[in-house]
Amino acid sequence: MDLSNKNIVHIKNKDIQYLQFRKLLEYKELINHAYSIGTDVNYRTGMPNKNELPKEKYQDAIKNYHRLCNTIGSDYINLVKANQEHTDEVKIVTQKLKNEEPDINVDNYSKTDGLITNKEGLVLCTTNADCILLLFFEPVKKVIANIHSGWKGTLQRISVKTVKKMVKEYGCNPQDLICCICPSIRKCHFEVDKEVKDLFVKQFDDLDLKQIIEKQKEKEKWNIDTVLINKIILKREGLKEENIIDSGICSVCNSNLIHSYRVEKQDYGLNTALIELR
């Protein structure tokens, strides 16, 4: 199965598969990036001191990061991963914290769901299994960001806070910013109860909710388009519509190739998104 479309390229390199955005490939001399594909490959490393995973699964995930980085031509040691706890915290990365291993499960990035840098060689990393991952690139100032925006992060408008921070810290122009939306759960499968629906209604009462929230006919459930929400609020923040590039891929619809928490439940795996300035 090939997931390539007008916005993405599905690359198969022996036993490694990944997606790349056609728009970002226009700048391949400046950045490197990838979104992992394949449910037989897991990038779930767990959180520090929580004993979430057996040691062998953690080691397998580390090997998978190493293989993916080698395949796309990035230095595995320079990987910097946000720990991701569904916050709106976005941190600036100026240097590696560990010398001989990647910055995975580092306390500095606890309660952190986004990373920004203008330093070459740092490989910013996030993971997902239905949540939205956003890759940002500003080619004029040469700044990148890698953001995890689950439904809680979307409620907190972490994507907009990322743009504001890139503007404040690096003088980025929102009109120059490119934002690529990785595979995630889509409106067709993001089903919520009234409590969650009400949170979205309250937070986004400034948007046209008719196109975002849809009531199911046969039960008290609602489907919400969190991808569309992010597109709208990013455009309001100044990004050009043509610079918001959507993979258009639902993780649930394609759970044979993409990890999905809603499909896999507690024994879920994780995909990873990587982006690096050259």
Number of continuous helical runs: 7
What is the assigned CATH homologous superfamily?
CNF1/YfiH-like putative cysteine hydrolases
Assign the structural class, choosing from mainly alpha, mainly beta, alpha/beta, alpha+beta, or little secondary structure. Answer: alpha+beta
* Main sheet makeup: 6 strands, mixed
What does this structure look like?
This protein has 278 residues and is an alpha+beta fold. The chain has a single domain, classed as CNF1/YfiH-like putative cysteine hydrolases, CATH 3.60.140.10. The protein contains seven helices and 15 strands. The strands form three sheets. It has a six-stranded mixed beta sheet. Strands 5-6-9-8-10-14 form a six-stranded mixed beta sheet. The chain is globular. The mean pLDDT is 96.
Which descriptors would you attach to this protein?
alpha+beta, 26% strand, 7 helices, 278 residues, CNF1/YfiH-like putative cysteine hydrolases, 15 strands, 6-stranded mixed beta sheet, single chain, globular, 23% helix
Question: In a nutshell, what does this entry contain?
Answer:
The protein has 278 residues and is α+β, with helices and mostly antiparallel strands. It has helices at 22-25, 55-72, 151-155, 158-170, 194-203, 226-236, 261-264, and strands spanning 8-13, 16-21, 31-37, 79-81, 90-92, 114-117, 123-128, 132-138, 143-149, 178-181, 191-192, 213-215, 222-224, 244-246, 271-277.
